Amino acid sequence: MKRTKQIDISQALALSGTFSFLCSCSKASLLPFLTLYFRHLGLSPAMTGVVMGTQHCITLVWSPLSALLCRHYNKRRVVISCSLVLSALIALLLLLVPPTDVSGSRFCNASNLRVEPNDSLAEELQVTRAGPQSWTTVHLKAPVSWTNTSVTRSEALPRQNATKEPQAQPSAQNTPVLLSSVTNPTRNSSALHSSINSSAEPLRLKRSEFISSKPEEKKRVSLDFLSSLKEMDVQTQLFFLLLFIVSAWEFVAAPLEWVVDDGLFEYLDFADMSDRHSSRELWALLGGAFGVGVSGLLVSQLSCVLAAETPRSAVHFYTYAGLAVVALPAAVYHPLYLNRKRQRAGGLLKAVQLVQGSPRALLCALTVFLVGAAGSAVDNFLLWQMQDHCSSELHMGLSLSLALLSQAAFPLLAGWALKLLSPGRILVVGAASLGLQCFYYSFLWGAWAALPAQVLSCFSKGALWWAVRVHCGDLAVPGAERSVRRVYMSLALPLGSGVGSFAGGFVAQRFGLTWLFRSVAVGLMAWCTCLPLLQWRAPQQRRINYSRLLAADGSDATDSESEQERDWLDKAMEEDRSNNNSRRTSH
């Protein structure tokens, strides 16, 4: 007879917490800084939004499908191990992508330029954005003495004013000089040479476009697809290359979280300990806070260029790959279980139907969708906004770490918040707090300016996801709360993040980062104004516990039957007593 393996819940939770901590630490060391790396390579905001939106769309479609296939073929542990290894290898491929030759200082922030005001020089820096590229050009209105590099930096001009300036002839007093030529006076000749090459780059592009406009050239391009790729400009080629690599990366990394979550839940559910499944989320938040903070601190302490002209941003990729390899032994012994008796294939579809049939659930799903769209704008372009205001990786890492810690701290305040507000009102407060954060981000003024707003993450994302969990418990029948929660967190949230990434990139490209955050804030505030009214008009639907209802019906039936038996017995006893009394009186 085969002996049943004893389950150690404490050991299982320890392994699960360690794996969640390492995986979240690995992701947080790279993913928040990924769009910043794309900016350094030369991608425009619109292209960056398309790349990140494609990533969210792949997650939306491939995560549930891959989890279903892993369950059907019982290959969860193999998929987890392969996902860790392949995602680390594909992430390192991004370091092989050559940047567009448009900037002299691609990987160092503007905060590294140590400038001091000096009245003896009449210089003025005008940092402009030339076209869709994100390089900076410094116009000097007076000659700069390379022995004294003290200059004053003025505020950045709007993009509209930069496009309306008349094209002046190059002269000694108005010469485009790259930022590296100011920071490195000993290499001024090479910097000037690179600035001349970068300024002549649009002329070469126009000349190539003119040549390709010939009829015979157009015919050759239409017949040969490979030659048409060669005729693309450098930035477009970079865009398609990054899109392909990021898509492949997300394809191998997307199944990880869903498959691990399924295996752990079934393992704990088999031991009747499914209520302790939520501890995994806390370890994930703590790991993310530790990873983003330590990686930002580490990169900020390094020089701009490592060995062999390797940028210091490569440390994020090496940290991601290293932590993924470290998490591999924990994945081998991670607690997983396949309960074939529980058929969960249609659980997600039933949960979607349940959400669709409830007006309040639809309002909650729409709120999560809008929060996902707003959150994608923050995740993609907040570091761009901070970099424009002289923030280094240290400021970015500490700010994001504080946001995750604040989000993890909200369950400690949940009891106090529930006494003051209902879960529906807490949902409104969460969305409104995120809107206030976005509005604050549009008025950054210094390196540490974004830090105070991160405390609001406790009441934005922390309060919002807590209210969603409470709503799922009130809506779903026992055993289906997790499926309903996935409708919000794994369907509505990635869908909103994808749409927000696409739209946010084009808004940032057209109007700038400041107006992107302001438009997101206005949209969330408008929705928070309408949401309480819609919740008040929506009918209140409570969960029906059919098992309790049947038990109640059974108890009522037994009680009624017992009462009827008692009534019949009492009547019979009373009749018997009356008959006996009448007989006695007759005798």
Automatic annotation (TrEMBL):
Organism field: Oryzias latipes
Iron-sulfur in keyword set: no
Pfam families xrefs: MFS_1_like (PF12832)
Cross-referenced PROSITE patterns: PROKAR_LIPOPROTEIN
Gene label: MFSD6L
This protein's name: Major facilitator superfamily domain containing 6-like
Membrane topology: Multi-pass membrane protein
InterPro entries membership: MFS_assoc_dom (IPR024989), MFS_MFSD6 (IPR051717), MFS_trans_sf (IPR036259)
Residue ranges, compositional bias (Basic and acidic residues): 563-578
Transmembrane is among the record's keywords: yes
Keywords linked to the UniProt accession: Membrane, Transmembrane, Transmembrane helix
Residue ranges, annotated region (Disordered): 155-195, 553-587
Bias (Polar residues): 160-187
Entry's localization field: Membrane
Domain Major facilitator superfamily associated stretches: 19-518
Listed transmembrane segments: 52-71, 78-97, 238-260, 281-308, 320-338, 359-378, 398-418, 425-443, 515-534
Family from the record: Belongs to the major facilitator superfamily. MFSD6 family.
GO terms under cellular component: membrane
